[in-house]
Structure formats: C-alpha cells, structure tokens
Amino acid sequence: MQNDTEIKELLVRKFKELYGSGDCRIFFAPGRVNLIGEHTDYNGGHVFPCALTIGTYAAVIKRQDRKLRFFSVNFEGKGVIESSIDDLVYSEAAGWTNYPKGVMWAFKEKGMELPSGLDIVYYGNIPNGSGLSSSASIEVLTGFLLKELYGFDVSNIDLALIGQFSENKFNGMNCGIMDQFASAMGKRDHAIFLDTATLEFTYVPIRLEGIKIVIANTNVKHTLTSSKYNDRRRESEAGLAELKKVCGISSYGDMDNAMFSKYGSAIKDEICYRRARHAVSENIRTIDAVKALNANDLATFGKLMNESHVSLDRDYEVTCDELNAMAEAEWQQEGVIGARMTGGGFGGCTVALVKEDKVDDLISAVGRKYFEKTGIKADFYVVSIGDGPYEL
Question: What Rg do the C-alpha atoms of the chain give, in angstroms?
C-alpha cells in the first residue's frame, strides 16, 4: 500500500500535468469499516465503526472564477469533468462528481456559499463498490477541504451531517449517519460507539493483541442508490409506525428483545416484522459487543459478529450468495474469532477478527473455497484503524 508521501507526489504530478500548477494543498479523509451494528443507524440504534488508514485524497487549488474542474485518478478515462458553482444540480452525466458537487450544494443550502471555483484531483485507495464507504469518504473530504480553504465555521460532526444531508437530498440515497460520522470523527486505534438517535458517542480503544482485522472483498459490486437499501428503510419505518401505536417508543433503539417479544405482534406484515426484529436485536448485539470488548472478552464479541450476519441474512435480507459463501468459509477457518458482512450489503465485504498467525492461512483457504463456490476471485486487506480527515 502506498504511503502518504508517495500519494502526495502522485497527486502533485497529476495536478501539474492537468492544471499547469503544482502549488496545491492536499487533504485526506478515511473510509470506514463497521465492526457491528448494521442497518441500525437510520433506525435509532447504536453502531460501532472505525475509520481506516485507507480513504480518499484530494489535491486542490482555488480559482479566480466560478468554474469547477474535477479529475479522478481512479477514473482516468473520464478525463477532467467541468462544472460551475452556479450549476450544483444532480445529473446522471456528472457521474462520480455528484458526490463532491452534492457537498458543495449542501454547504450552500446551509448558508455557506463558495466564493470561487476550484480545480481538484481526487485519488482513492478504497476499493470501489466494496462497501468500505468511498462515498462518505469523498463527502467528508470535500467538506473538510471547503472548511480549510474558505474558513467556514463547521465542526467535524457538522461535516458528517452535511455529508449525510448531501447524500440523502442531492444523490437520493437514504443513508443514515454512520459512514460520514466514522470518517469525520475517526481516531487512531479506537472504534466509535455511537448512539445514532442522539449522536452521543464514546471512543473505545481497540486492543487486539495478536489479532488482526481482515476485510474480504467479494468483488460483487453494490450500487446502493439503485439497490433495495431505500426499500429496507421504508419497511423498517412501516414496522416502527405500528409499534408506536401500542408502546411509547420513538425508535427501535428504545426497545430490548423482551419488549419486542411482547409488542412485536402489532406488526402484521411479515416482512416488516422481520425488518423490525433485526433492528431491535442488532442494536442489543452492538451494545453487548462493546461491553464484551471492554471486558476483553473477544470470544463473545466474535459470537455476536456471527449472529449479526445471520440476522442480516434471514431477517433483513441484505446479504447475497457471495457474502454468505465468504462468511461461512471464514466461520469454518481456524483462528477466526468472528466474521460478518459489513456495510450496506448486496455485495461488498466481510470483516473478520483473525488470530495474527492464522491470517495467511485464512487468505489462502477462504480465497480458494470462495472461488470454488462462486467462480469469483476475492481480495483480502489486513487493515489498520486510523484518524479522521487531515491535511498532508
């Protein structure tokens, strides 16, 4: 993996080649992996993500006019895509630039108008479509560079909320707050225990002596906006509306499993019932997992990870054959403490806690089993937990 210095050199070189000047500033925002607490963030529950040391970089310079010029090293063939700060509207033709444009639009909506245009070169080392939140990373990165270049008075929590607002309202993706929050508020060697109903959070040290976090990419790409993600949100909201009629809750985060057993039958639609059961049980699993981690009980943490995957498969139905094949192969592998799908689902990655001396065996054996079952070559990343956005 390239380090910051190598990426900086690459960006400056590309910037000079495209825009004629190397006098740019360079910023970074991380991707994230969620250890447990999936599809709870828009359901008023808890999540437990951490920022990664991989993410998205941008080299940028202010212009004298109102023109915007975007280029991505990851999509070289698309060339420089031009726009303007007077043309911040979503369009299919704008492709990936809808993400940074959406953040600029959101700043404007919040009363922070860009005084001038920008030339930007982006580069990401998050695998595209992997579910490690490249979209939130580019949103937080764009917000952070706008704050730094123009002196806007916004906190990193504000940047997370602006990123979510832009993805919801500009890009039409009804995501919760977790991805942007993890990217904006990341802290090295810590995960974030976040109550998404209140945005109260604590940093939990991740002490994994002799344990590695291994991400396995199914290489099945999901496109969340056009997937069933928004359907899951509607189904969850329908179930919650039924529960509210019979007990005084404002979100699934207010329920425990016993309470759901008592009142769950108020949800007459079987699909909505299962969506609700996942939202409640996953929130409780996440709370219990953090308690287990704090007690240095990794066996319980791993068991809860496995149970999370099963619930996401059977009750929330956001896994797929490939994700299930990957998780099942990992569960059978010696040295795996726990494994589950991570991210929105319908493809993307699993995350596993693996004994350090068994990582190579896992990559070899699980990669082989996965290929035999699916015909797809998997990619594996041993990841580290990093900080939120910064300037290089």
Answer: 21
353 within 8 A of 338, measured Cβ to Cβ: yes
By DSSP bridging, strand 67-72 and strand 49-62 are: unpaired
pTM exceeds 0.85: yes
User: What gap in Å lies between CA 170 and CA 271, rounded to an integer?
Assistant: 29
**Residue with the two structure tokens 């002596």:** 209
Strands (E), 63-114: 67-72, 81-84
- Structural domains counted in the chain: 1
Residues 183, 388: contact at Cβ < 8 Å?
Answer: yes
Could you list the active site residues?
Answer: 179
- Model pLDDT for residues 41-55, shown as the tens digit of each residue: 999 999 999 999 999
Q: What domain range is 123 assigned to?
A: 4-206
The pLDDT tens digits for 264-314 are: 999 999 999 999 999 999 999 999 999 999 999 999 999 999 999 999 999
DSSP 323-355: HHHHHHHHHTSTTEEEEEEESS-SSSEEEEEEE
Q: What was the pLDDT predicted at 130? A: 66
The pair of structure tokens assigned to 368 is 């082989």
| Residue 132 falls inside a structural domain | yes
Pairing label, strands 67-72, 118-124: parallel
Task: Report the C-alpha gap between 251 and 43 in whole angstroms.
Answer: 6
The CATH number covering residue 164 comes to 3.30.230.10
